[in-house]
Structure formats: structure tokens, C-alpha cells
TrEMBL record:
It comes from Microvirga terrestris. This is Biliverdin-producing heme oxygenase. Transmembrane segments: none annotated.
Amino acid sequence: MTILARLKTETRAAHDRIETAMDLDRRIASREAYRDLLIRFYGFHKAWEEEAAGQAPDRGFFERRRKTQHLVKDLEALGLKSEDIIRLPQCRPLMPLLGSEAVLGSMYVVEGSTLGGTIIAREVERRLGFTAETGCAYFRSYGRDIAAMWRSFGAVLLEASSPKVDDLIVESAQKTFTVMHDWLCETP
């Protein structure tokens, strides 16, 4: 079983748990609810990116996948000022990301949520009228390159995979799902 297949199998329950708990219908029912959802995503990504950046296996590969700038653009489009955004709460403490393999396991969750974001983006556009330019850049962060970005991530993950590190990769993904669930589904 490849590491990608193993991750999909061994994180399925955590994935389903967060998807159910998110209550997306409620979170995109109004402009205010949607803004609050983006604030939670910002708090997660801002903290996660700061933690993961120093341990990422390839700096350029990691930098192209940052989401915080998209969230800032969306939050500004929804009326927040830069000084308000930098004071938003962040997801702390994160689980420690000790080494590049742990970062790759954690990135599996973040990159997977980017894939799911395309579905959310369509709903946000349909319900609220936001596009990538007017408040939905985060959920459309890779635009037409979504499939290529996922494939390139999968290739890096497969290259890093070995019996020696695969348990750490899976454990990191599972912990990331837990942290993301707790942060996104907590009432601020």
C-alpha cells in the first residue's frame, strides 16, 4: 500500500468527523458566518505555516502552498483592516512538527482541504456571490492548477515514503486533523 493510500484509509474517520462537525451550510449561510469561518481558517493557517515553514523538506515547494495571503485578501474584501487581521487569534498550541516527514503528513491534510475547497468555493459563489476576487480566494487558492498541485504534492510524499518514516507521516496527519477539527469547530 502506498503512503497516499495508507493516509486516505487511516485518516478517513478523522476526515469524516471534521466534515460533519464543520456544518458548512451554517458556516456559509450569511456574509458574517462566512467571514467568521475565514477567520478560523486564518488562525489555523497562520500558526501552521509559521510552524511548518522551518521544517518543510523543500522551501520553494512549501512557499507555493501557503494560504494565509489568500485569507488576508478575502478578509479585507469582507471589510477587515490589516491591523484587525494581524490581531486575530491563532491556533496555539499546534502539535509539534518535528522534521520534514511530520510536515509532509500535516501537509496531506492541508493540501486535501484545498481539494475540498473547490467544492466549497462553488457553494460560496452560488449562495453569497463571492468570487476569487471578491472574497473567495482561499477556497480557490490554486485555481486551475489544483490537480497539478495535488499530483506534485503526492509525488513528493511518495518520494519521502519509506517503512522507516511512514508511521510518523500518518501520525502527523491524524494529529493535524484533530487540531484542525478542534480549532475550526470551536466556538470563538
